[in-house]
Amino acid sequence: MTEKSPGPASIPAAVRAAAAAAAVLTVAAGLGVRAVSGGGVAKYAGDALYTVLIHTLVVLLVPRVRPLTAAGTALAVSWAVELVQLTDLPAELSRHSTAARLVLGSTFNAPDLFWYAVGAALAWAVHTRLTARRTPALR
């Protein structure tokens, strides 16, 4: 019996499953970094992983998204959240909600912008590599 390559209809489901697994691993990595280190290492690793998580959520929602588009979207969202911290809104929401504090943060920190870019670059590189592996099966 010969093994058939997956048809085009099954690819989004497989990509979504991989993206969901990547999201879980990303959250686990973030919690792991917090558990074993502190200070700047945990903070900036968390920033990068925040953007990686957004990238995986973009892929989960749009499984055929190109790596650069997903990374750019994740970076734009991360930067937008950070820049909104220049206002009082995230700090006020964070006082009332743990979820808001985790998602929005509370205070602006310029180095975070760099670490979000590091996370976007990492997510782009992994996504590009995985997409390159999958592409021959599509032909």
Tell me what the structure shows.
With 139 residues, the protein is mainly α. The protein is built from 6 helices and no strands. The protein has helices at 10-36, 39-61, 67-84, 89-96, 98-104, 110-138. Helix 2 crosses helix 3 and helix 3 runs antiparallel to helix 6 (110-138). It is globular and about 45 Å long.
Radius of gyration: 17 Å
Number of helices: 6
Number of E-state strands = 0
Rough outline: globular
Largest sheet: none
What is the strand and helix layout of this fold?
Layout: H1 10-36, H2 39-61, H3 67-84, H4 89-96, H5 98-104, H6 110-138
Features:
single chain, about 140 residues, mainly alpha, about 0% strand
Condensed summary:
The protein is mainly alpha-helical. It is 81% helix and 0% strand.
